[in-house]
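Changelog note: in this version the structure field was regenerated for every chain. One regenerated record is shown below for reference.
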Amino acid sequence: MKKPVAKPPAGKRRKAAAAVPPPSEPTVPCATQNGAARPEQNGQPAEPAIVGDGRLPSSMMRSYALLTPDLKELYFKFYKATYGKTRLDLKTKEFIAIAAALALNCKGCLEGHLKKAKREGATAEEISEVIAVTLGVAAAAIVDRSDIANYHLGGLFEKPE
């Protein structure tokens, strides 16, 4: 049973911030799952498309919306520093970023770094190899976690033959 949520005293209530604009006032064009613009209905923009898992497409959201300006600035300084002149060339850094985006399930990151990798001269074959290596590490992580869980359960399951 849920506990009732205590409301702050009347004088202490904060105004609720509008997290997502109403469908009639989109900040960017509405898009379908394949990225095509959605048609207007009765002179009004159509409601935003919802992706298969119930989320709005990332193009409908404001990035960094919950960071304060000083934290956002600090993040961007760090991010730019990682792309400065180092021992790794930019294409290699993009391959690492693509793998990290895949592993961390960051759609916007993946799309951005795929575009950057393309600009740095990445080929479809190289991207395929990055995906394959990432897939291999992800599969190994699943095996590792299941082995650890089984060990901590006292060898609950025997090794399959």
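Spot check on this record: Confidence is low (pLDDT under 50) at residues 11-39. The two ends are 45 Å apart (CA to CA).
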